[in-house]
Amino acid sequence: MSPRTLLPLVAAVLLGLGSVASAADAPAAKLLAGAATSNITPELGIDIVGGFLPFPATHIHDELHARCLVLDDGKTKVVLVVCDLLALHRCVSIEARKLIEDATGIPAANVLISATHTHSAGNAIGAPPRGFYSDHELTDYQRFVARRIADGVRRAVNVLRPAEIAFGSVDVPEHVFNRRWFMKEGTVPVTPFGGTKDKVKMNPPGGSPDLVEPAGPTDPTVSFIALREPAGRLISVFSAYSLHYVGGVGTGHISADYYGVYCEALKKLQQGGESDPPFVALMANGTSGDINNNNFRTPRLRKPPYEQMRYVAEDVASKVNAALAQATWKDSASLDARYRELGIAWRKVEPELLAWAKETEAKALRIQSKADITTVYAGRVQRLANASPETKAPVQVLRIGDLSIGTSPCETFAETGIEFKKRNPFAHSFMVELANGYYGYLPTPRHFELGGYETWPGTNYLEPQASVKIMDALLEMTAELTAKSK
Ligand SMILES: [Zn+2]
Predict the structure, then answer these.
(1) pLDDT at residue 380 above 70?
(2) Banded model confidence at residue 29, pLDDT cuts 50, 70, 90
(3) Which residue among 117, 297, 363, 388 is the one 20 to 30 A from 327 at the CA level?
(4) Distance between CA 400 and CA 337 in Å, rounded?
């Protein structure tokens, strides 16, 4: 074809008169991104959850936030929110996602809301006896959190602007340790239920000569999604690391733990981090149900409050920041999402265990003893036995370009997150736990055989096959998104 005959065709295409290129060949629309935070700090006096028994907050060391990131590929928007909470009830996520959909039109299925697992935050799970196990009227604080999440997302939508995206990861193995240990025969202590069949102990004494080896792996990888203004300053970094929490806060303190310190540290490392609108970092929990910050091979050193969390947070922030320098940036990424609620059964309570629970509680009431770990479990077992027949455990997969994020509403073990990455067809993938609801620990079937704290009824609430059902659903949804992208 000569240039002369080509001209009218080019003109026709430019004017939109011809259909030379099919819709599939059209260049992807440019990506937009916006990020904002919302303060979700509760009032003093609220119950702090995270220990065996709640206790009232007497001081706010640092503010709690819902950190919100919105992405828009021109056709679809997805939202990622990370809240400074121990966990959140499914009803809070449903209410927040409804408010977001009403205000912005973003479908509820495209909104991922997770908790960090800071152990120094207000209760958004719901109060016993029924709150945990069933849908309920939101408490004042739960309603406040839902509204503030929606506000944060609306703020992020208001500052959507052209963006480039990069995916990356960096291994930071030095802060993560598997906390479930095989111990020498006869040295695993008795359980609250009396006697023990446990083969492993959670949080064994550091440096004990009875330690044999950890019962599972760690996942040392910090995965991240970075957004920046075209060839300009960073808009946001969403990251996920598989570390339960660090702790070491003052007594009665509200604090966002290392997650909050990390976000502030990464912001300080950015030129123009405080410019308008400010840079927003997010740190989600990966899969850390069996992972914490204690190196059990040596006795744990006591440090002043907040020292260890600062050490971990600043180190992880500097390593992510260094990895950002190597990032490859793109100006488009296809977005999509899948969301399901799974009818996973609650853990079955055997009649003998229920009889033990009733007897133990009655005895405690007779002698008016203070609540110890045995009576706490006696109460938990009875509530578990009375739970509604089935859960509606939410699971979700977000597709962001070459990345797939799978979610679990539980304290999920590291090996589950590793399996999701291994079996995932996407170039990049990772899991976010404590997402869109809360259902306790999620040991794999292998770990149910080993026993230990995370498998006890009253710490674990779901059937032993729950982790398998969640993985199957995540991989099915991922496959749907892969098929659609071809
Ligand atoms: Zn936990």
Answers:
(1) yes
(2) confident
(3) 117
(4) 9
Domain boundaries, the chain: 32-180+211-335+395-439, 351-385
CA of 150 to the centre of ligand 1 (A): 26
Centre of ligand 1 to C-alpha 461, Å, is: 13
The stretch 175-183 carries a mean pLDDT of 98
The answer to whether 212 and 181 have CB atoms below 8 angstroms apart is: yes
Q: How far apart are CA 153 and CA 147, in angstroms?
A: 10
The Cα-based distances of 337 to 34, 80, 107, 304 in angstroms read 18, 11, 10, 43
Residue 243 CA, ligand 1 centroid: distance in Å? 10
What's the gap in Å between 289 CA and the centre of ligand 1? 6
Residues 305-317 have pLDDT tens digits of 999 999 999 999 9
Q: In angstroms, what is the span from residue 349 Cα to ligand 1's centroid?
A: 22
Percentage of the chain modeled with pLDDT above 70:
92
- Would you say residue 27 has pLDDT above 80? no
pLDDT of residue 301: 86
How close is the Cα of 458 to the center of ligand 1, in Å? 13
| Under 8 Å between Cβ of 448 and 305 | no
CA of 411 to the centre of ligand 1 (A): 6
Ligand 1 centroid to residue 59 C-alpha, Å: 22
Query: In this structure, how many other beta carbons lie within 10 angstroms of the beta carbon of residue 11?
Result: 11
Phi, psi of 168 (to 5 degrees): -165, 175
Measured CA to CA in angstroms, residue 171 lies from 98, 174, 223, 226 at distances of: 37, 9, 9, 17
**Spatial contact of 290 and 454, defined as CB atoms under 8 Å apart:** yes
Please list, in sequence order, all residues whose beta carbon lies within 8 angstroms of the beta carbon of residue 327, skipping any fewer than 6 positions away.
166, 167, 168, 226
428 three-state secondary structure? strand
Measured CA to CA, the distance from residue 429 to residue 120 in angstroms comes to 29
